[in-house]
Amino acid sequence: MNTWFHSWRAAIRIARRDAWRYKGRSFLVLAMIALPILGVSAADLTLRSSELSTEERLSRTIGAADAWFDDSDYGGVPILQSPDGEMNTPAKDYGDQSWPSGPTDVTKTFPAGSTVLTDTSGSGKLTTVHGLLQTEIRELKATDPMARGIMTLQEGRFPEKADEVAATTHFLEASGLTIGSTLSARGYDRPYRIVGAYELPNELKADQVNALPGAFLAPYAKAAERAGLTKPEHSTRYLVKLSGGFTWNMVQQINTKGVVVVSRAVLMDPPADSEVPLYQKENWGNYRMGSGVPAAELAALGTVVGLAMLEICLLAGPAFAVGARRSRRQLGLVGANGGDRSHIRAIVLSGGLVIGVAAAIVGTILALILTFALQPLLEEYMGQRFGSFDIRPLELLGIALIAVLTGLMAAIVPAITSSRQTVLASLTGRRGVRRSSRVLPLIGLAAVLLGGAIALYGSVVSDQFVIVAGGSAIAELGVVALTPALVGLFGRTGRWLPLSPRLALRDAVRNRGRTAPAVAAVLAAVAGTVAVSTYAASRDAQAEAEYQARLPYGAVSALVAEEGGRDVPAVRDAVQRLLPVDTRADVDRVQVGKANCSPYGGPGCGRYEIVIPKANECPLWAPSVDGEDPAAKFSRQEREKLAKDWRCKQGDDGGVNVEGGLLIGDAKLLKVLGIKDAGAEKALAEGKIVSFAKPQVDRDGTVDIKLIADQAKADQAAEEGKPVPGEVKSLPAYLVPEGQKAYGVQGLITPATAKTAGLSTVPLGSFFSTDRMPTTEARQKLDGELAKIGSDVDLHLEEGFVGDSSIVLLALTVFAGLVTIGAAGIATGLAQADAEADLKTLSAVGAPPRVRRTLSGFQCGVVAAMGVILGSVAGVLPAIGLRLTEERAQTRFYEEALAQGWGGSTTPPYVPVVVPWETLLALLILVPLGAALLAALVTRSRGALARRAAT
């Protein structure tokens, strides 16, 4: 035991001195191991620090209160809720009956002796330096001790008067306002002075202002009604404090009155699931995430960690081999003085241990420092403040142990190789001859076949991505094991090469022990890059094929659905001024009810619908008297046939989000949309509706529009299976022949025709054609103008399909290039250490000085080229397997959609496999060429003077 300890102690001391002596190599290996440790440790610290305890979550939501009361909007009927209040439902099972709805008087449910603080939230468009900004308006007395923790004051103070507000720091940044500025709401000119800045710890990017209760929302709602605007909605919750808090039994008692309660005492000590009536209800349960990690995620995480360690080992292993080769005389002296092979292995392994421990310490310390220093930036990025800087020593220790293990694994092969050299060979610098292993290629071939079979099964038989990915990983490991044999095959091409590349290739083949790890490292990095690049390029090609243009190329639409189109004239003028407009087509929409109603309804608002004639109804969707699924009465073959029937086909709605795709406009809209049909223009002039939807047109050539004034009666009739009451307007129609793309417009009538038919209209927006594609500068100016207007504008410029994978492909190519150059450079350094005697011989026989530089460049380029070629072949196959799996899944869904009658809006799946030739060419040509040139540039033309070696 004592001998073992002292031998390892001496080995570690030797390894430490060697690491300090060769600082450049040591720093390179340390950086390769420490960087992943730094990243993982920093991620662990960030994740743990962002996880809030129950007390911290409660402080940010209910402050110092004991509970939070909220209306369930079920009309006061008894409810069941989860302990955290996130799920609730009426206690009674209403089946097919309509669920109760309506407000509840929450104030009647407060226990005697309670202290209550109201917290009311609404929204409005507030004035800013730039225009208007949609902002949350919150009425909460933030200075009350019960609200402590909900808001964090940053500067100034909270409001104390009715005409004062505080604002979040994000709102002040977005609005351009400062403390001391005044603001008001659209349609409500009363000024409010900003007296403070605060933040919400859980929502750092929230745009919110805080006022005293009753100081803003109520007068704002009255002013909006007087101005003819939609009355802003608001909701109120109550923070309640009670001596002794609220137990789970008390919460359940209050639930009988239709009120949801979030109790501090309950969350700090939650009841068992068996004590929660909601969880006993059918189709309800505790869906909280369990503490365990799914097996699939663990397997994926283990695979990623294992492959990352393998990559580092393949990169760092040759570096340790370089150190062992340069220290072979020292290792020979150890053997000459009585050291055996175990001592030699211990010294080389200690090098990996020293570097691994140093990398673990450096990576962990840097992670702590950087995470602490960058905490504000991380919090801003995540949108919430950390609960505390949470350090988990055991987790950081486990991550650090990975670094130590990686260092040891990287040094195993060099240690074994060094221990097998004889003392005489080490002292004289002779390399000896050792044949390659014959077992390793067989193992690699078996792994390739097994992994390929698994991946093939996953892509052809199963639809599990995990199977394809797992099989591909096994096959890639097999290719790595086959690398020495594959390197030998490359040697046969040397006979056709000039002198310098032939020498470089034969040297690489002859010394596979140092060439194979570098080639394998390049192979692994390039294979991953090619696989992801091929998959991303294929997904981009599929997305481009499936892309549905909302407008003709270069056309623009600007639509405003809110407040009865109040801001439409200003929006039209802004687009007309700032974009190169050729033709402008103004459009309106049909309005039922008050002029300021949105298309989605509201108090005092009605709606309209396009009546589909009975003969044109799709049999798969037609409403049935008994309430059963109408598709159920058809056979599978009949459903597949009906799914392709014109009555069941669904068109693309484009960007026209109005009922039935009905717009009010003129022939200019046809021009902007590129619709060339003289019959359509004539029909508009004759007062007809131009229809692009065949199911809407009756046999007598008319389209019926039903105006529904009473929304409540319409909903009740629909629930009872009765016809929806409403006034029907019939308009003569012209059906546009098939083949014209209308971009979501299904019907078009002129303003005069709408007025004659008794249809009320409000402005919706405009469609524009342009004489050239608008520049980025013009679009930025337009965005600024629209922001000043402050309306919710649906602005769309049709640019065609724009892929989002170009940055990903570029980043992957750069990553693979860096790994390739690094691995090839390490192999070149080892080759130079090995071939120093050969270079001296070449110099002695008259070779010019540039031969050393040229040979170094070709050695680096040969390693890079072999790795890139093998990696490119190995990387394409997994991507093909994943795409085949996706094709099977999408084909099955398409067939099922046809069988069930859902296929009216689906098309046969198109799942292409696209090889990113630009990325492959960059990897196959530019990366090896760059590696060769870089190695040639950094290599000296003449070797250093050395003493004559002993013979």
Strands, count: 22
Shape type: globular
The major β-sheet equals: 10 strands, mixed
Tell me the structural class.
alpha+beta
Count of DSSP-assigned helices: 28
Mean pLDDT over the full residue set: 80
Rounded radius of gyration (Å) = 37 Å
Range of helix content: 40-55%
In terms of quaternary structure, what is this? single chain
Q: Uncertain runs with pLDDT below 50, 5 residues or more? A: 289-293, 945-951
Strand content: 5-15%
Distance between the termini: 39 Å
Describe the structure.
The chain is an alpha+beta fold and 951 residues long. Helices cover 50% and strands 14% of the residues. It has 28 helices and 22 strands. The strands form four sheets. Strands 1, 4, 5, 6, 7, 8, 9, 10, 11 and 12 form a ten-stranded mixed beta sheet that branches. A six-stranded mixed beta sheet has the order 15-18-19-17-20-16. Strands 14-21-13-22 form a four-stranded antiparallel beta sheet. The radius of gyration is 37 Å and the shape is globular. It starts with a helix and ends in a 13-residue tail after the last helix. Residues 289-293 and 945-951 have low confidence and may be disordered.
Could you name the key traits of this structure?
six-stranded mixed beta sheet; globular; 951 residues; 50% helix; alpha+beta; 28 helices; ten-stranded mixed beta sheet
